[in-house]
Specification:
single chain, about 350 residues, Aldehyde Oxidoreductase, domain 3, Molybdenum Cofactor Biosythetic Enzyme, Chain A, 3 domains, seven-stranded mixed sheet, 21 strands
């Protein structure tokens, strides 16, 4: 592609680089200049324009963006993605369902490494999306790129992103109480909202005393496809009431604690084929916390390992709350957030 000043008598079909305002009308940047455009420019006293001219072997920005999108998303239905139309060298990718986005980071980085004029920007890996939420934008930065460069960028990009939809329909939330009083409905409401946006619902409310035996029985009896436990007293050790109750029920704990704040005091395990998540106390708030990252992946059928949770620490400082009586940065012996 050639770019720069062009005499008007050589500019037919060239792509205007900067918008021009004439008497009575505007010629927008990106316009392929016509004889009429050039006549109007000449009448306005102009002798040249700044423009781009594609050479043999070049692809127009819109065609290149569309081609790259089709290479990355060869099967829209299977990948849970919708490709938008092209304009100004840009094509957007949208989720067709709620869920989490799974990215092949290495392959997408290869796309961006071929030519600075060929780019794709995405949401983070495992980012939660709603149906019709934007997942990525493909932008051809110049007015055209060599087709050979586009082919190289697209070569191994097929299927490098997809939306994983929810695989469960419902969940049971078991709450424990440390007194005779029923816990506030705030926590249940927050969790119901999290599930609703993923197309799931909560089964009937279950509240039991904060004791291992009663909690184990409730875990065994839980009808939901996913089991969540929200304790009235924070779970502060792998041998505390809630993890021990899961073991007593015949389940296993695969990870206690996570390097995400708020959300440190989470545990995850299973009872047979059912995922079990011990929620930190901060899950009573609808604000983002570490439990969201785990819950969203579990709901979408991702096997969340101890190593996966360990890796969440980089980028896992989600929020400092200045209204806390003793901020984390200065609190001696702080046990973390629930």
């Amino acid at each position: 592609m050639k770019f720069g000043p062009l005499p008007l008598d050589q500019a037919k079909g060239a792509i205007l680089a900067h918008s021009l305002q004439l008497d009575g009308r505007k010629i927008a940047k990106g316009t392929a200049l016509t004889v009429e455009d050039l006549g109007d420019l000449s009448a306005a006293g102009r002798t040249e324009v700044i423009a781009a001219r594609l050479e043999p072997g070049d692809l127009h920005e819109d065609a290149a963006a569309q081609a790259l999108a089709r290479a990355i998303v060869p099967d829209e239905a299977a990948q849970g993605l919708r490709i938008s139309g092209a304009g100004a060298g840009r094509v957007n990718l949208y989720a067709t369902t709620c869920g989490v986005v799974a990215l092949d980071r290495a392959r997408l980085e290869e796309v961006n490494a071929v030519d600075p004029m060929i780019s794709i920007a995405t949401v983070p890996d495992y980012h939660r999306v709603d149906a019709n939420g934007m997942v990525a934008t493909i932008k051809i930065i110049a007015y055209g790129v060599p087709e050979a460069q586009l082919d190289q960028a697209a070569r191994d990009a097929g299927g490098a992103m997809r939306v994983l939809p929810p695989v469960y329909r419902n969940a049971t939330l078991i709450e424990t109480r440390v007194t005779e009083e029923t816990p506030s409905a705030k926590g249940r409401a927050a969790m119901a909202g999290r599930l609703e946006r993923m197309g799931m619902e909560l089964t009937d409310r279950v509240v039991v005393p904060h004791r291992e035996q009663e909690l184990a029985e409730a875990i065994l009896a839980a009808p939901g496809e996913v089991i969540m436990v929200l304790t009235g007293s924070a779970t502060s050790d792998p041998m505390d009431v809630a993890p021990e109750a899961l073991r007593h029920a015949g389940g296993e704990v695969t990870r206690f604690g996570m390097p995400v704040d708020p959300g440190n005091l989470l545990f995850i395990g299973k009872l047979g084929e059912k995922p079990v998540i011990g929620l930190p106390g901060c899950a009573r708030s609808p604000a983002l916390n570490g439990a969201d990252w785990v819950l969203e992946r579990v709901i979408c059928g991702v096997d969340v390992t101890s190593a996966d949770i360990a890796a969440m620490g980089v980028g896992g400082l989600l929020k400092e709350i200045p209204t806390r009586p003793m901020p984390r940065r200065s609190a001696p012996g702080n046990r973390g957030t629930g």
